[in-house]
Amino acid sequence: KKRIIPVKFEGEAPQPHTSVMLGDKVVGEVLSGIKGKALAILRLERLKENLIFEDGRKITPIIPNWLCLEN
């Protein structure tokens, strides 16, 4: 499953449709953002992994309290 999740990162926002990667695998994409923050559609099972933008910058998902990650 995928959901729209806020993410934080250092620097300027990437362009919309920038890939979110886990290693060499695409696990989501950026929808929109501003400096330091964006909304991305991400695979729920990958939220606690070491995610990066396709340019190599680390991103941190901001997991809302209401989002249940357990099955």
Provide structural commentary.
The chain is mainly beta. It is 0% helix and 48% strand. The chain contains no helices and 6 strands. The protein has strands at 2-9, 19-22, 25-34, 37-43, 52-53, 59-61. Strands 5-2-3-4-1-6 form a 6-stranded antiparallel beta sheet, with no helix packed on it. Strand 2 and strand 3 (25-34) form a beta hairpin. The protein is globular, with a radius of gyration of 11 Å. The model has no long low-confidence stretch (mean pLDDT 93).
> How many helix segments?
0
Q: What is the quaternary state of this protein? A: single chain
The portion of residues assigned to helices is under 10%
**Helix and strand string, N-terminal first?**
EEEEEE
Summarize the biggest pleated sheet: 6 strands, antiparallel
- Could you tell me the radius of gyration in angstroms? 11 Å
Give the integer mean of the pLDDT values.
93
Which regions have little confidence, pLDDT < 50, spanning 5+ residues?
none
| Helix vs. strand class | mainly beta
In whole angstroms, how far apart are the ends? 11 Å
